[in-house]
Design brief:
The complex is a heterodimer of chains A (370) and B (346). Chain A is α/β, with parallel strands linked by helices and 370 residues long. Chain A folds into 4 domains: 1-74, Beta Barrel (OB fold (Dihydrolipoamide Acetyltransferase, E2P)), CATH 2.40.50.100; 103-134, no CATH class; 163-249, Rossmann fold (3-Layer(aba) Sandwich), CATH 3.40.50.20; 256-369, UDP N-Acetylglucosamine Acyltransferase, domain 1, CATH 2.160.10. Chain A contains 6 helices and 31 strands. Chain A has helices at 87-97, 105-113, 129-135, 173-185, 217-222, 238-250; strands at residues 2-5, 15-21, 28-29, 34-39, 44-48, 53-56, 65-67, 71-76, 165-169, 190-195, 204-205, 208-212, 227-230, 258-259, 264-265, 270-271, 276-277, 282-283, 288-289, 294-295, 300-301, 306-307, 312-313, 318-319, 324-325, 330-331, 336-337, 342-343, 348-349, 354-355, 364-365. In chain A, the strands form 6 sheets. In chain A, strands 14-17-20-23-26-29-31 form a 7-stranded parallel sheet, covered by helices on one side. A 6-stranded parallel sheet of chain A has the order 15-18-21-24-27-30, with no helix packed on it. In chain A, a hairpin with a 2-residue loop joins strand 11 and strand 12 (208-212). The relative contact order of chain A is 0.07. Chain B is α/β, with parallel strands linked by helices. In chain B, helix 1 (5-19) runs parallel beside helix 6 (153-163), helix 3 runs parallel beside helix 4 (90-97) and helix 7 (225-239) crosses helix 12. Chain B contains 12 helices and 14 strands. In chain B, the strands form 2 sheets. Chain B has a 7-stranded mixed sheet, with helices on both faces. A 7-stranded mixed sheet of chain B has the order 7-8-9-11-10-13-14, with helices on both faces. In chain B, strand 8 and strand 9 (204-207) form a beta hairpin. The radius of gyration of chain B is 20 Å and the shape is globular. Chain B has helices at 5-19, 44-47, 59-71, 90-97, 100-103, 153-163, 225-239, 257-266, 281-287, 291-296, 315-321, 325-335, and strands at 23-27, 52-54, 75-79, 113-118, 143-146, 168-173, 188-189, 192-196, 204-207, 216-220, 243-247, 250-252, 269-276, 302-306. Classes of the chains: A alpha/beta (370), B alpha/beta (346). Chain A binds chain B through residues 11-13, 15, 40-42, 63, 65, 102-107, 124-126, 128-130, 133, 143-146, 180, 182-185, 187, 261-262, and chain B through 1, 6, 38-39, 122-124, 177-178, 180, 191-192, 208-209, 233, 236-238, 240, 337, 339-340, 343-346. Chain B: InterPro entries: THDP-binding (IPR029061), Transketo_C/PFOR_II (IPR009014), Transketolase-like_Pyr-bd (IPR005475), Transketolase_C (IPR033248). Chain B: This is Alpha-ketoacid dehydrogenase subunit beta. Chain B: Its cofactor is thiamine diphosphate. Chain B: Keywords: Oxidoreductase, Thiamine pyrophosphate.
């Protein structure tokens, strides 16, 4: 058996035109018989059979352009001798014989994860992740990341060995923000699902399945899930957030800091774990955050502030330099806190208030009060 | 099966010489059976014996003659065998042909076309592989038109020859001759959405997604056009990001509308050219961006160009010198923010 390849007709061209094919698949030919006629921009040439034999695996057709070096056909001694594919021939065959639509890498990965046959998806051009998601019966608004698991018995949850699986505790509005933050800011992580203790918990959130209640934590940990995020905002009940955070720690989870890519966090800022810094927030130089704080949208935390564990700075709060906020305290929307003021533990600073002096523990400042 | 760029140009010359007796061809080795170095002029001397002028090797001489013919009412088309040799006629073009309309107070014009096979990637070495049209940027009165496989090259040549009263440098790319033209029909080109701007020398915009989704604008002309489309496809396949490729054919004066509109949508710009970048096309595009497009930019525009070196005969060295698909892809990834993907995975 002998493979024939497209010859180079001109040192400056890596492609030729196949003008005529004079033989058919399986045809018996003699040595010297013309198999096909090729043309470059400067010349035409006949390709002759180098020996007697049968034309097999004929890989060119009239009118096509062929690459120099591409297999043209094989010549075998007998009509039914098996033809061993050379690798370029196998590739060409795979391309020609496959009617699979083209897809992006992510779309292909998603399709294989959900066992979607790409040929069943109506498409124009190159299939993207969105095409696959739409096909999975979800509108383009409800996006599910590849790696987020479909809702199923938790023994079926594919944790994977990459250590990149993260579970979210809580299925409320805050959880949706956390999902977006992970997807936007921590593309190295895979959200495998949500745990929620409410009996009326939803089935899914932004395409992330709700797996069940907290009794599932142990099983998830055993299967190698190391990371968790708290998806509970809890308005002013930061004691609850502290409780849930402690629960996650007891279960053995690590809580990564989630920082939205459009937050501005100086490199000199220091933080513990499980902090969530939302879009538009500014965390300035030498700020120290404890664990599990929420720095909400468009909050300004000026230089040298200290924000202790579980505190929640709600949207638009403005802290001047050197302010301290004690554990579990809430600073309301649009509140301002003057330079160097110390806010104690479990304090609630109402929306729109302006704080000029220190606040003792458990103090509640009503909205608009000073 | 569409025709090749070479066939399109050759047939346009046949068509023009058939319908318009003012059209003449001038250049080296044009006579059949040779028909010019790249065969664009094949068959013309046989069909129109008295209007195909094969000349001695003197670009200054025959371009000068062609300028005189144009002033005298003919429509000469000059073939420069390799675009590199247009430098020998630079004085005729810049100091004479391009200025006569002003010197003679618009009593004459110079409807001349000079065809320039430019570009490398064929192992022709340092003096036969360059892309030199940038040296004519900023020469008043001289138009530069560059074709690509996404427009009808023959029609473009016909526009430049029969309807443009200015001297036009018509830039072709040697690698492109054997390529098939990729026609645009009903707003589509193969798997891409396509837009064609109005005017005699259209800009073509292509995108693998809808134009509204463009993450980055990639401007490429001539020989870089197909590489740009390949890079756009890879950006989608590998990163799920949408690139809008804008391919102008009017290089001087620079046609900015399609580019500006695309940048206003995408906020990111990469400009590609096959010549070294200094003082070139990319710099012109970036400096010509209108205020609205400039304001939309979210990152510094990037240029992709050849290294500032002569082109070697060695295939490997030539490939390392000239910009390729990987370079275009890398530049797009440099301007695009990593975290701002609009794909489903956030």
């Amino acid at each position: 058996m002998e493979w024939l390849h497209i010859p180079m007709l001109n040192a400056n061209e890596d492609e030729v035109e196949v003008i005529e094919v004079h033989v058919d698949e399986g045809q018996e030919v003699e040595r010297g018989q013309v198999l096909c006629t090729l043309e470059s921009t400067k010349a035409t040439a006949d390709v002759e059979a180098p020996c007697d034999g049968f034309v097999r695996a004929l890989g060119v057709r009239e009118g096509q352009r062929a690459k120099v070096g591409q297999p043209l056909c094989a010549l075998t001694a007998t009509a039914d001798e098996p033809v061993h594919l050379s690798s370029p021939q196998a590739d060409a065959g795979a391309q020609a014989g496959s009617d699979l639509p083209r897809a992006t890498r992510r779309a292909a990965a998603l399709a294989s994860e959900y066992e979607v046959d790409l040929r069943t998806i109506p498409h124009e051009g190159i299939l993207t992740e969105r095409d696959i998601l739409a096909h999975l019966g979800r509108g383009p608004g409800a996006l599910r990341a590849p790696g987020d698991q479909a809702a199923r018995a938790h023994t079926d949850i594919e944790v994977g060995g990459g250590g990149d699986a993260i579970v979210i505790y809580g299925a409320g509005g805050h959880a949706r923000v956390v999902i977006d933050m992970v997807r936007e800011g921590r593309r190295d992580l895979r959200i495998i699902g949500i745990i929620d203790d409410a009996p009326d918990r939803p089935d899914e959130l932004l395409g992330v399945p709700v797996l069940g209640d907290a009794s599932m934590f142990a099983g998830l940990r055993e299967r190698g899930v190391r990371l968790a995020a708290l998806g509970v905002g809890a308005v002013t009940h930061n004691a609850l957030r502290a409780e849930l955070f402690a629960r996650l720690k007891r279960e053995g989870f690590l809580m990564p800091n989630l920082i939205h890519p459009r937050a501005a966090v100086e490199s000199s800022a220091q933080m513990g774990q499980g902090n969530q810094i939302f879009a538009g927030a500014v965390v300035s130089s030498c700020v120290r955050l404890g664990d599990n704080t929420i720095i909400n949208s468009n909050v300004v935390v000026s230089h040298d502030c200290i924000i202790e564990d579980h505190a929640h700075l709600t949207p638009g709060a403005l802290l001047a330099g050197g302010v301290q906020v004690g554990p579990r305290s809430v600073v309301g929307m649009g509140a301002t806190i003057f330079l160097g003021v110390r806010v104690g533990a479990d304090v609630v600073v109402g929306n729109g208030s302006h704080i000029l002096q220190n606040l003792e523990d458990q103090r509640v400042v009503r909205a608009g009060e000073r | 099966m569409s025709q090749t760029v070479l066939e399109s140009l050759n047939q346009a010359l046949h068509r023009m010489m058939q319908t318009d007796e003012r059209v003449h061809l001038i250049g080296e080795d044009l006579l059949d059976p040779y028909g010019g170095a790249f065969k664009v002029s094949r068959g013309l001397s046989t069909a129109f014996e008295d209007r195909v002028w094969t000349t001695p090797i003197s670009e200054a001489g025959f371009v000068g003659v062609a300028i005189g013919m144009a002033m005298g009412g003919l429509l000469p088309v000059v073939e420069i065998m390799f675009g590199d040799f247009v430098l020998l006629a630079a004085d005729q073009l810049i100091n004479h042909g391009a200025k006569y309309a002003w010197i003679y107070n618009e009593k004459v014009d110079v409807p001349l076309v000079v065809r320039l096979p430019m570009g490398g990637r064929r192992g022709y070495g340092p003096t036969h592989s360059q892309t030199l049209e940038k040296h004519f940027l900023g020469a008043p009165g001289l138009a530069i038109v560059a074709t690509n496989p996404f427009v009808d090259s023959g029609r473009l040549l016909e526009t430049a020859t029969r309807y443009d009263r200015r001297p036009v440098l018509f830039v072709e790319n040697k690698k492109m001759y054997a390529r098939r033209q990729r026609p645009i029909q009903g707003g589509r080109c193969e798997a891409m959405d396509a837009r064609v701007s109005p005017g005699p020398y259209p800009s073509v915009s292509l995108s693998f997604g809808s134009f509204e989704m463009a993450d980055v604008t990639l401007v490429a002309y001539g020989g870089m056009a197909e590489l740009a489309v390949e890079a756009a496809e890879r950006l989608l396949i590998e990163d799920e990001r949408y690139c809008e490729v804008v391919m102008p054919t009017s290089i001087q004066p620079l046609e900015m509308d399609a580019i500006a509109q695309s940048v206003a949508r995408s906020g990111h710009l990469v400009v590609a050219e096959e010549s070294p970048g200094a003082g070139g096309f990319g710099a012109e595009v970036i400096s010509a961006l209108p205020a609205a497009a400039w304001a939309a930019l979210r990152a510094q525009p990037q240029r992709v160009s050849a290294l500032n070196l002569p082109i070697a005969n060695s295939t490997a060295l030539e490939a390392a010198t000239l910009p390729d698909v990987d370079d275009l892809l890398a530049a797009m990834r440099r301007v695009l923010p990593t975290a701002a993907s609009r794909s489903a995975t956030g």
